[in-house]
Structures are given as structure tokens and as C-alpha cells.
Amino acid sequence: MALTKAEIVERIAVKKKFKPSEAKDTVKTFLEIMKSNSTLASGEDLMISGFGKFQVNEKAPRKGRNPATGNDMILEKKRVVTFKCSGKLRDRING
């Protein structure tokens, strides 16, 4: 099951007895902080205690292939975000 932003907003509104607009603003602000130039966008890690760590990693240039044409090509280096869950979250998932 995928949890959409709208579902997160709804759950926060119900659980915290927020107006839907307040819950939406809260989620929007949190996501903006995560993406801001002072965290992930600048390459810094983001750790949320008890939840996990979002880490920016660099992928080196590598050889690839265009699936439509079959032609070989070089894929440029890029940055990707990975997530590693905390021990507490892992324990909760594994019951």
C-alpha cells in the first residue's frame, strides 16, 4: 500500500484534531524542510530520530544501454537519496 501525501494530511488532521488546512501546511512545511538547500538538496544527510536516515549518495558515471534502441551509452554521474531505517523502526516492522 502506498501512502499518499493527502492520506498523511488526513491522518494527521484526525489524530491531532487539526483542521485539514493546518495538517496540510504542517506536512508541506516538513517536506520543504527535507528538500531545502540546508539539507538534502545541498547533499547533507537528514536523520529523524526513531525513524531513520535519508542519505545523499553520488553514483559514478557508468556504462548503460538505451532500451529502445539497444545502443550503448555513458550515464552521467548523479546524486541519489537512500533511506536506512532506525533500529527502533526495524524492530517495530519485524514485530
Any overview of this molecule?
- It is a single chain.
- This protein has 95 residues and is of the alpha+beta class.
- It folds into 2 domains: 1-35, no CATH class; 45-95, IHF-like DNA-binding proteins (HU Protein, Chain A, Irregular).
- The protein is 37% helix and 28% strand.
- The protein is built from 3 helices and 5 strands.
- The protein has helices spanning 5-16, 20-35, 87-93; strands at 46-48, 52-59, 62-65, 72-75, 78-85.
- A 3-stranded antiparallel β-sheet has the order 1-2-5.
- α1 (5-16) crosses α2.
- The chain is elongated and about 55 Å long.
Strand content: 25-35%
Number of domains: 2
Distance between the termini: 19 Å
Bin the helical content.
Answer: 25-40%
Radius of gyration: 18 Å
User: Which fold does the CATH topology of the largest domain refer to?
Assistant: HU Protein, Chain A
Shape: elongated
Task: Find the structural class using helix and strand composition.
Answer: alpha+beta
The first-level CATH class name of the largest domain: Few Secondary Structures
Q: What's the β-strand tally?
A: 5
Helix count? 3
Oligomer category: single chain
For the record, the CATH architecture of the largest domain stands as Irregular
Order of strands, main sheet, comes to 1-2-5
Task: Please give the structural blueprint.
Blueprint: H1 5-16, H2 20-35, E1 46-48, E2 52-59, E3 62-65, E4 72-75, E5 78-85, H3 87-93
Antiparallel strand pairs: 1-2, 2-5, 3-4
Task: Write a concise keyword list for the protein shown above.
about 100 residues; alpha+beta; HU Protein, Chain A; about 35% helix
